[in-house]
Amino acid sequence: MRLRTRMPKSARVAAIALALAGAGLSTAVPASAAPAPESSVSYVKYEGSSEEAKANRAFFEAVIRSVAEKRAANPQAAAVTVVYDASRAPTFAGQIARSTSIWNGAVANVKLQSGSASSADFSYREGNDPRGSYASTNGHGSGYIFLDYAQNQQYDSTRVTAHETGHVLGLPDHYSGPCSELMSGGGPGTSCTNANPNAAERARVDQLWANGFAEALDKALGKAR
Ligand SMILES: [Zn+2]
């Protein structure tokens, strides 16, 4: 496992946790089921005791940069579109489609679209992981949402998928919130089945993509702002 020297504290903690989880798992989980811990230095979970704000921010920034770089190369494109690759999470195809439909109906300034691995800004993966479901990125264009089999049977699976996708769109965790909030994640318990972002969450995503995308596009085009 490689650690960068200037990694933020939260990422170091996550990296150490990943290393420990990886060590304990080596015999229990097939190599193909869980992603390689070395590929991720930060992640945000569906349920947890603290907000992984830096990890979430890193994923969002990597995605918005990826979308802006494609737009800079193709200025005629009409909508701000985040492309995902769902080919490595076939069990969750229905949940991913529903999450996409929910988000595309809820926000105006960014759209999710299914695409190939080569064109994707992020991907979905599935498997067994004691950490549960999470969004993970190395901050350099290889972010993915991991959907854990056990947790998706315990909690409403469409809510888990839409929640993790909310991280990609820029929203932080807020575990103390009510079931009506998507980003409260596992906080309200397993009985919560709401998979829709509330009005404040929708407004926040629209605001992030209105302001953040213009800035990312200027950077991709090499303009000062
Ligand atoms: Zn979360």
Automatic annotation (TrEMBL):
Superkingdom in the source lineage: Bacteria
Cell location: Secreted
EC number annotated for this UniProt entry: 3.4.24.77
Catalysed conversion reaction: Hydrolyzes proteins with a preference for Tyr or Phe in the P1' position. Has no action on amino-acid p-nitroanilides
N-terminal signal peptide: 1-33
UniProt keyword annotations, A-Z: Disulfide bond, Hydrolase, Metal-binding, Metalloprotease, Protease, Secreted, Signal, Zinc
Recorded GO MF terms: hydrolase activity
Residues passing through the membrane, by range: none
Alphabetized SUPFAM superfamilies for the sequence: Metalloproteases ('zincins'), catalytic domain
Pfam families: Peptidase_M7 (PF02031)
UniProt enzyme class: hydrolase
Cofactor: Zn(2+)
Database matches in InterPro entries: MetalloPept_cat_dom_sf, Peptidase_M7
Protein family per UniProt: Belongs to the peptidase M7 family.
Protein name per Swiss-Prot or TrEMBL: Extracellular small neutral protease
Organism: Streptomyces bluensis
